[in-house]
Amino acid sequence: MEILQLAFMQRALLIGLIVGALGATLGVFVVLKRLSFMGAGISHAAFGGIALGYFLGWNPILTAVIFCVSVGIGISMLIESNQIKEDTAVGVFFTSTMALGILLIGLKKGYNIDLFGYLFGNILAVSREDLIISLVIGVIITFSLYFFYKELTLSILDPEMARVIGLPLNFLNYLLVSLIALFIVISVRIVGIILVSALLTIPAATALRWSKNLKKVLAISLIDSLGCTAGGLTLSYYLDTASGATIVILTTLVFFVSLLLNIVNRKIQPTA
Length: 272
Known about the structure:
Layout: H1 7-32, H2 36-56, H3 60-80, H4 86-107, H5 114-120, H6 128-147, H7 149-157, H8 159-164, H9 169-207, H10 214-239, H11 243-268
Helix pairs in contact: 1-6, 1-9, 1-10, 2-3, 2-4, 2-9, 3-4, 3-9, 5-9, 6-9, 9-10, 9-11, 10-11
């Protein structure tokens, strides 16, 4: 209860739970569609978008939203053209957007220490404006997942059937990639660009160790993500460690414990 008496910790916990919940639900679709590497690529592209915002004197978060959504759709269009494989397309955008960010930082006169906050994360420095933007983007992601839940589920689990009944697969793919980009942009303040893809993949990967039922996977992923976010933030406060890194490490530990328990369970079952 001590940490909840501090205003900055209240904001940190609130935005952490928002991002944790979004990552847990969106991440299930990402992992099932095997877009984890795409998420890593877009997360690094966020650096270029943030640097562009600083260079132009615009809001870096809003600039990064537009930039990352454009990069995500650009990668998808390049893959669909059958001219280049997915890993190559992500790699091209991954490196070029990071290079663009470094170039723009070098061209910008003066130096802004906030760039380190975006690169490595600083949830304790979350402002009221960051919280409002996160809430707005969170509502957009939540509404989109709820409204297109059945279509996204069918397009991921049975794309052939989805194609036969006439679902707009390209649109659904662009939608999912855009939601990934939106999530990444609001998450960089928590764990930083380097670690943000972990929130999108690890809770979902953990949940898939325990169930194959989609609704149960979503529930387990949500519980795991919220628990690790709150627990990691609390641990970082008392241990005086980096909040984002502590959250990711705790999430990773839960994943490996789940993996180990599943291995032990499979070995015990045949002899039962």
